[in-house]
């Protein structure tokens, strides 16, 4: 099923991801980290399904554990000494917790970016920035597309070569290596040719010239306004809390955190709602669809 | 377009200037004053040496002191040709080499070191010139062989002080138990509280004493570092260090969670043994019985605790 948050106006998608990723990188508070990690993980699973689950378990979980364990080996600051390493340096509770928080942050940013890639397609990005920064936005969207596009093209070439018995999976090892080189060479010439063609085609269509208009299907309608206002409100609440120091945590030399109060609980709820906003939108849309479908 | 570019360039330059004044890169005013005061102190003592030059026969030593006083100012050209003693030339060469080999030592660190050398000598000149010359001969003789830095970038150790030992070569004799006095203080932070990292305020003891001076036992052959590590561990005081192969010594990054750079960018831990700041790392200082070890926190590269001579190349 199509993701309904992706059908909102590109500006909303972009502002949302900028806000969420910035908050995630700035706020080390454990509750904020947990909220962001859970919602980013669930949204990426909703977007990509089983592939995302495999990615998270195979790569993100080991990465998280590795980063959390490596930090206390090199960082020995903190007042709570748990035990000593062989060389005499202490392992402290603070450095372990800091390692976990930093690893969480890192993994969450990666997850948010994987969601971003699925939601913000290059046409949306160019739609937002094509007028202001035509060259830069084009380069940016092309760069982001490079790896997936070349991977797809290599698959196409490899299938074609397989049909004449020249794939990397056919023949002895020398043969396979030569076939692989041939595929890469075909890929190379295709990439160069494609770049020239793209440039020519963009130029002949007058990309970036003054006075050029472009067609787009995006419309900033009423539901966009509502979501945008909700987002701005939540961001204002979180920003005010950040100004009051509610979202920050100090790890060294001892952990200091603002005591939990009504205000801070409100802020957690606001941040949680901001983070799960796309998931909520999607689920509400799904339920609506089921409701309509069952009536027929 | 070009106008825009100029504007951007001006903006960048303005930002840099602003950062320079705001960010604290501008040299503190206290430093130049201190240097100038030291320079003014050295001047009279130098004069007195000049006056006494006629009386004292051993001019070679005088030469040496004067060159030590002003290595980078104009050398006393008149006096150089005066004395034709053959002894003098190698001494002169070595001092020159010193001056060349230590460009890393800024003027600020060089002048105070010369001050500490000169002032006692001028005192001695007043009371008894012959005794002084003997001492000076010793120092020049001691200087000749070890004028170079060793392979761990340590400057020559002053006469009468223990030479650095590589900790890999030392064998610890567990049968022989000796005692030393150890103390860890950070009193200099109390004078520089506005530079101090506010997060670390809770770690700072009110009187600045982290580990009160007390007798500790150690095995023969152990270094200052070994003693510190054991005592901090036994007293549950936090401490972090890292091995620095280029100086072949452990570098103390922080004690009691008070780290280097926590009190300005010139701050960190230094150590002295029997009142002297060694110019090499603590892992290379092998202790003797009843030594007095003091670990002190400096906020100004050792100048505020009297250890400015040690900071040429060595770390504490």
Characterization of this structure:
The complex is a heterodimer of chains A (296) and B (316). Chain A has 296 residues and is mainly alpha-helical. Chain A is 73% helix and 4% strand. Chain A has 2 domains: 176 residues, no CATH class; 79 residues, no CATH class. Chain A has a two-stranded antiparallel sheet with strand order 1-2. In chain A, strands 3-4 form a two-stranded antiparallel ribbon. In chain A, a hairpin with a 5-residue loop joins strand 3 and strand 4. The model of chain A has no long low-confidence stretch (mean pLDDT 91). By secondary structure, chain B is of the alpha+beta class. Among the domains of chain B are: 65 residues, no CATH class; 136 residues, Ferric Hydroxamate Uptake Protein, Chain A, domain 1 (Beta Complex). In chain B, the strands form 2 sheets. Chain B has a 4-stranded mixed sheet. In chain B, strands 3-4-5 form a 3-stranded antiparallel sheet, covered by helices on one side. Chain B is elongated, with a radius of gyration of 23 Å. At the A-B interface, loops of A face strand 3 of B.
